Amino acid sequence: MVTAQQTQPDNRRWYAPPANLHTGAVGQKFAFLTVEKHVPEFGFVIRCDCGRSFWKSSTMHIRNGRLKSCGKCNLTGRKRWTPAEDAIISKHAGTLTATKIAAQLEERTASQVTHRAKRLKISLKTHGDNCSWSKYSDHDCELARQLHDEGMAVKLISEKLEIPFHALTSIIYHKRR
Ligand SMILES: [Zn+2]
Predict the structure, then answer these.
(1) How would you write the pLDDT of the chain (177 residues) with one tens digit per residue?
(2) How far is the CA of 33 from the centre of ligand 1 (A)?
(3) Global confidence as pTM
């Protein structure tokens, strides 16, 4: 018996789906997409409510709701990011958390801000006093570094500023912050 896998041309072997992959989705509608027909060993014809149709090798993302429209229309009604909103994100990145940035924008959630920052290649990591994890203030860290530069022993600085020895060495040698 010759299986579907053996009859496929070599250049499609990583792409072509098995012959009968969820053909039950044919004729059904999910969000703005209708699965029109299934062509064995090639995929599905999907039609969007806006009139465009396209090919998909699998209907998985359509059935589970990951894909709601063709992506070329704006039927899902997503709000576009404006340059002003992008400017607010880049302005506060590093000092405010995503939640606090989202509070400054209209109808945006922290998760949306995080995703947009990723798209803009902006890091939202907060540093120093703005970071909720940091134990020692920026002032203490700077002071510790200054004292060390002046030649004071690390152990002595540790006692003075009441920062544990090990934490202090990592601050002084800039492993942290
Ligand atoms: Zn569409």
Answers:
(1) 555 555 555 555 555 555 556 778 888 999 899 999 988 878 899 999 989 999 998 888 898 888 999 888 888 877 888 899 999 998 888 888 888 899 988 888 899 999 999 999 888 887 766 776 677 788 888 888 888 888 888 888 888 888 888 888 888 777 665
(2) 8
(3) 0.51
Query: How far, in Å, from the CA of 53 to the mean position of ligand 1?
Result: 8
Please give the distance, rounded to the nearest whole angstrom, from the Cα atom of residue 31 to the centre of ligand 1: 11
Task: For residue 121, report the distance from its CA to the centre of ligand 1, in Å.
Answer: 28
CA of 52 to the centre of ligand 1 (A): 6
Q: 161: CA distance to ligand 1 center in Å?
A: 62
DSSP 55: E
137/134 Cα distance (integer angstroms): 7
Distance 73 CA to ligand 1 centre (A): 4
Q: Which of 83, 116, 120 is nearest to 101 (CA)?
A: 116
